[in-house]
Amino acid sequence: MQESLALFTTAFIVLFVLTGLGNGSTYKMIPGIFQAKAVAKGLSGEEAAAYGRRLSGAAMGLIGAVGALGGLGINLAFRQSFLSVGSGTGAFVGFLAFYALCFAVTWAVYLHRPAAAAEASVPAKEEKFRLSYAEV
């Protein structure tokens, strides 16, 4: 395998751009999810907004604390990859597989609209508020 600083640098930049996109989208979705849960519980107005802010604030704090470990995890993954096979390729492949899994889970849980639900013509008054329809 030929060594290439340009390829390594480009791959590293792509890795961190994708990480930033995932981080930003996670923080963007959290308030919408908790707001949808508040509405689903029957809360409305300021009471729903306060409920959503309180829970999303707590969740973001926990997610931020766990996310801080990401810098350590990336270094450990690269170290192990270089020690095992002498290349960072294994770490990059592992990161990309993890990002693909995270994307699939996010799409399936929060963004996917089942075909049966999309085709059903339910009047707006009777439509039940669901997380997959949250405007996030």
Amino-to-carboxy terminus distance: 44 Å
**What string gives the helices and strands in order?**
HHHHH
Number of helices: 5
The amount of beta strand, in percent, is: under 5%
What is the overall silhouette? elongated
Spatial extent as radius of gyration: 20 Å
The residue fraction in helices comes out at over 70%
Q: Which blocks of ≥5 consecutive residues have pLDDT under 50? A: none
User: In terms of structural class, how would the helical and strand content be classed?
Assistant: mainly alpha
Mean pLDDT: 81
Report the sheet with the most strands, covering strand number, pairing sense and barrel closure.
none
How many extended strands? Answer: 0
Task: Spell out the key features of this protein.
136 residues, mainly alpha, elongated
Give a short synopsis of this structure.
The chain is mostly helical and 136 residues long. 76% of the residues lie in helices and 0% in strands. It is built from five helices and no strands.
